[in-house]
Amino acid sequence: PHVFALSRHTHRTMTRLANIPGVCPASTSGSAAPRARSRARRLAVLARSWQGQHARGARSASGAHRVKVPLPSEGPLAPPPDVIDAVDAWPWRGGLEPCGDHDLASVEVEGTIPRDLSGSFYRVGPGRIRVGKDRYAHWFDGDGMIFGAELDGSSNTARAACKMVRTPRLAKQERAGDDAGVAVRGAWTQARSILANLFNFPTNPANTSPLFHAGRLLVLCEGGAPIEVDPLSLETVGERVFGPNLPMGFSAHAKKDARDGRLYTWGLCKPPAVGFQVVKLAPDGRVEKVVSLPLDTPQFTLIHDCAMSDRFLAFIVPPWKLRLDKVAGALSGATSFGHSFDWRDDLGTYLVIIEKATMEVVHQGTIPAMSTYHFAGAYEEAAEVPASKGGSRDEHDDPFEFCGYTGFGDAECADDDAGDGKEDGEKDGEDELAPTRELLHILVNRLNGDRRALEANFSSMYDSVWDPAGYNTLCDYVVDLGTGALLSSEALVPTGDAAWGGKGDIDDGQLPMEFPVTAPGARLRKPRFVYTLGFTGGGAGYFDSVQKLDAGACKWRDGVRVCQRSGAHKTRVMPPGVFPSEVEFVPKKAGEVSEEEEDDGYLLYLEYDSRVHRSSLVILDAADIEGKELARVKMPYHVPHTFHGTFKRAGEGAR
């Protein structure tokens, strides 16, 4: 994980800052700084090592993970030889294959669906990432698909369906036929015909996430307007445009405030304007306000997700920018739009905080470069924050003053100003604690490795090889709402070394991860638990576990953050050849819940079993994710790997 050195803070100021839970821990010994630097270097070397192995050539699964996937050998779903070879090398790739449309039908239930779990579970993802023998040039260009399972806990029965989202681009592609190859331009994928690309903006694949709003089930993707589908049959109804003055795009991760039903979304401005706009929609779909989102440069960028707290929206925008020398080609259709982006480490990452009530920007500024796709949420906290030292901040000062967790049982800050001539405990008027201030905690994934390498994997999923560098560390970015200063960015819970080939157990800390999920009742406050998909490094080559991280495992004692080494976090590791999707937390109790009740619910997730090329919906007790599964809903087909989902209880209104 990325670790940045502290700048300009004295050891004494850091010691005081350490007394604020969630901000920055204090150094307690002379060996602290070397340990911090040593751990940072070790993880950085491991990341480079993994990426170096990747660069030297593709590997394959071995031992128990070398599973023969029974792919179809004939018919429209039979893969070409190169795909067969790719799946033979890594069985998880079988989950990239299309499954076709499946109408709503009864499916087998193994075990017992809890009686209080009745409703519909939805998942959305790319239903296919190839057209015949032609592959799409990015996973995110795949044609959208929606899966739905209707659960009835009272009768222990289930029905399921799986349908392609019938977008205009899919209809055009089907008219052209598979033999014509890719017929429609995507964000990353050029159509085979040059004329089909020129002066055509990339099309919307509708492949990212489902959302209920204004009485409709919508499939979202930043490539265009939401697509409405029937919540029972999953048949496509058509585009849903909420107003004429909206941006061209609609966020794949629009944020819905459960308290008042309002929806916040964002997207690219309509041409010829350049930039982003943020939109507030009323519960009935009326447009309440549209505002511009300030960015550091006018270049095109990608804003996939944001974090929402009780009062704010927080955008962390990585410097993944459309190259200026490729703008003309990308916009005209002469070259790929998505593949014209590049990483600009020199620009840093841009942080923007917007107040939900007024839709006004309260803070904006640059922080050191980091890459992210997803957030676990955000929450506000009142705490004492040290007053800044006298004098004005130089414009070249590092705004990211980081203090990293260095190991289990202690947390250290570098002492970069030790010889200041003052005795320990001597007060300095300029360093006195300020009155209580408001902090905003932003729980964000931070990519462990290189963004270019990640995008290269996404661009050729049948050839991609995954390792810890391609996953993330879930971090807690702490912002002073009074000043806009970024106070801390450490891991929410410590990272373990097991998945990187180091010593220790996989439960010692968070695994390389993606898709963080919290209980709905805890999404606007500090969560006790976060559920993630994990990568154990055990040989499966892809997500192979579900992890329950206990943020409460870290306590503050005498200014030092002490984190429980074992027993705090729980990991459910899949059998060889089995791969889970992002989990959905379904609470037993509606509304906000206390910390003690936070895991009182169920975890639902799709599981792809490459050994039989089939998928199941698995239901777990969220309080005991390592225990016996409660029920398994077995589909007679596989569901291609999905991105995101939602659950709607039976009898709930359609708001």
What are the low-pLDDT stretches, counting only 5+ consecutive residues below 50?
1-58, 388-431
Percent helix among the residues? under 10%
What best-fitting shape do the alpha-carbon axes yield? Answer: globular
Number of helices: 6
Overall pLDDT score: 84
The biggest beta sheet reads:
10 strands, antiparallel
Helices and strands: which structural class?
mainly beta
Rg calculated over all Cα atoms: 24 Å
Overview of the structural elements:
The structure is a single chain. The radius of gyration is 24 Å and the shape is globular. Helix content is 10%, strand content 32%. It has 655 residues and is mainly β. Residues 1-58 and 388-431 have low confidence and may be disordered. The strands form 9 sheets. Strands 1, 2, 5, 6, 31, 32, 33, 34, 35 and 36 form a 10-stranded antiparallel β-sheet that branches. A 4-stranded antiparallel β-sheet has the order 7-8-9-10, with no helix packed on it. Strands 11-12-13-14 form a 4-stranded antiparallel β-sheet, with no helix packed on it. A hairpin with a 5-residue loop joins strand 13 (276-281) and strand 14.
